[in-house]
Description:
The chain has 410 residues and is an alpha/beta fold. The chain is built from 13 helices and 15 strands. Helix content is 28%, strand content 19%.
Amino acid sequence: MKTFITIWPFVYVNCLENNTLLYNTLSGESACFESKPSISRIVQKLKNNNYSMVIDSHELDSECKADFLRILVSKGMGYHLNVNEAFVPPVTPQSIDLYDEKMVSNFHNNEFAIESLRELTFYVTNFTKKPQYANPFTLKEGHKQFLFPIAHPKPDELDLDKIRSVFQIIEPHTIRVNILGGNIFHYREIHSLVALLNESKHIVSYYFHYTDLIDPEDFQILSNLPEKADKTVFLDFPLQETHLENWKTYFTQEDFYFEFVVESQAHIEEAERMVRRHEIVNYNLRPFYNNNLDFFKENVFIEKEDILCVKESLAVLLTKKISNPAFFGKLIVDPQGNIYANIHQAPLGNLTTEALHFFIFNLLENPDSVWRVNRNGLKPCSSCIFHLLCPPLSNYEAVIGKINLCNVKP
Length: 410
């Protein structure tokens, strides 16, 4: 007797050593067989035969029959049939092999490199004209962990013409544009910048620190920002109530997002009290690493159960296989016009001296660029069957000095 087995093409399969993961990208259900060599052997044979084949039934031990075949059917990942010698296997759609090197090599073969640009972050200034209100948190280099205002002892501003020139280059494509300072209210060309962004079709986000809102003119500028533009306000501890009061009108507005920068459980609890007290509509907790590894292990590091709760499409998994979605398509421009693919790396060049197309093409072409480096090629993640289901590499890994922010492979 023989058995016909097929795994549906929408199922992601990963086999490493004696561990096997089956993940249904339609339902989000998964099946994990750890330290099961007999199952790994069968799945590897299936992979070599395009996930559809007839095998001798004697190759299926009790473990395969009780676990693998039963779960394959019950979780909608495939099916099996007992067949005779004359059985002709049905034609089944070819599975998308996430390990097909042709797909990887074709990834950067893009003659329209500019179309790969998805997001531009402009740090238009690095100072505030009232230094007594300068945010001390910026001295901790929060911008190296997430989008956050910068501060520098030597004031500098980005020439608005450079932003205009970039917009001309990327036309007619629509991207996300992030605007940060320093204190962007004190950018000398703020009115012209707002007008330029209002006229564009780009998706615009403005970022503030809660101590930025000082002068009556600042309130006027804020009121001129269109409702369609997102406004994110960072709040870090200890909070200064006098500055916080300036934002109370905006706590319940849908286009304002308040991000509490937290370093401890006490910060989380205080943020939650603030949300309840002020009835803040949109808020988020943003962990900041300050050698507080225990706090991160408790609140940021993920468990296997967290990973298996994620629902990812096959297209997303393919993207994570050949690129890093957290950084891909994103560039940062500082007040001097220097361009970065990642703030932890040296600038790629300057807007004044080199063409934007050149930077983008090199990021696509170079397999070691931050746009393309991912967990698939870095240990210990590359030896874990769950690595494509994990969140992509972020700035947290860089500041912590640890690739796997999880408790699966400590």
